[in-house]
């Protein structure tokens, strides 16, 4: 693992790290899944966390054995339906929805001259950063149109490092989803997994909560 002193940039997942919009994603997918007779489960929820819109829908259809029952057009309609429900939920999002510890961590990073960028699988990321009033910290958000494959492929984290003009070994990536941590690892960036360490055992460093994100904690947990 690269030396902590080499680190110059932090690549952030959005949902589940900066804000809890993952809850809105799961609620809106659940409504769509149940509307077509697919049973929701915590296993399905974990499998789609961090996947992009169409990959999530495909995983949901597969879990119900319905992967071949919908045309591309029908699938698009289902994905649009989910996004409509999601966007309605987003209306009430505001800076109080920023997860615990994140504001302090962002301020600490800025004070210590680290660069930062959003590496989210969501097309709604710019809208959410605006609603959370975090544009000042995150003028940079990876544009999904610029990448070929979404998480768990490395593209989004590779693009994020490139946009900061940094090598991958100068960056840390932070994500709360299995596919997100896999994406960070595939990019050869040091990964921090936030959540259940058993679920995210593939991460280089594990914290159970965003509250644990401080430079001191990261340094202390480096390559143990
Ligand atoms: C990720 C979420 O951040 O964004 C996923 O964790 C979601 O659950 C994905 O499917 C895509 O989001 P959107 O807003 O583009 O539908
Ligand atoms: Mg996430």
pLDDT < 50 stretches: none
Question: Radius of gyration from the CA trace?
Answer: 17 Å
Molecular shape: globular
Share of β-strand residues: 5-15%
Ligand kinds: 6-O-phosphono-beta-D-glucopyranose, magnesium ion
User: What would the average pLDDT be, to the nearest integer?
Assistant: 96
Characterise this structure.
The chain is of the alpha/beta class. It has two domains: 4-19 and 95-221, HAD superfamily/HAD-like (Rossmann fold); 22-92, Orthogonal Bundle (DNA polymerase, domain 1). Helices cover 42% and strands 9% of the residues. The protein has helices at residues 21-35, 42-48, 53-63, 72-90, 102-111, 125-131, 155-163, 178-186, 215-220, and strands at 9-12, 115-118, 171-175, 190-194, 205-207. Strands 2-1-3-4-5 form a five-stranded parallel beta sheet, sandwiched between helices. Helix 8 links the parallel strand 3 (171-175) and strand 4 (190-194). Helix 1 (21-35) packs across helix 4 (72-90) and helix 3 packs across helix 4. It is globular. The mean pLDDT is 96. Bound molecules: 6-O-phosphono-beta-D-glucopyranose and magnesium ion. Magnesium ion binds at residues 13, 15-17, 22, 50, 175-177, 180. 6-O-phosphono-beta-D-glucopyranose binds at residues 14-15, 22, 25, 48-53, 56, 83, 120-124, 177.
């Amino acid at each position: 693992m690269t030396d902590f002193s080499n680190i110059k940039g932090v690549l952030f997942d959005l949902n589940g790290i900066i804000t809890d919009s993952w809850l809105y994603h799961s609620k809106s997918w659940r409504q769509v899944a149940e509307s077509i007779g697919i049973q929701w489960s915590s296993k399905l929820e974990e499998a789609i966390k961090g996947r992009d819109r169409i990959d999530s829908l495909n995983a949901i259809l597969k879990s119900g054995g319905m992967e071949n029952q919908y045309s591309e057009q029908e699938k698009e309609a289902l994905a649009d339906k989910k996004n409509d429900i999601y966007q309605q939920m987003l209306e009430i999002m505001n800076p109080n929805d920023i997860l615990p510890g994140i504001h302090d961590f962002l301020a600490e990073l800025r004070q210590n001259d680290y660069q930062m960028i959003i590496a989210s699988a969501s097309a709604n990321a710019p809208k959410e950063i605006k609603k959370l009033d975090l544009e000042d910290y995150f003028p940079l958000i990876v544009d999904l149109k610029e990448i070929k494959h979404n998480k768990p492929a490395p593209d989004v984290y590779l693009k994020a490092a490139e946009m900061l003009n940094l090598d991958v070994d100068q960056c840390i990536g932070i994500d709360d989803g299995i596919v997100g941590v896999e994406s960070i690892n595939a990019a050869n960036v040091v990964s921090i997994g936030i959540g259940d360490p058993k679920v995210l055992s593939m991460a280089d460093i594990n914290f159970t909560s965003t509250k644990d994100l401080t430079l001191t904690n990261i340094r202390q947990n480096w390559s143990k």
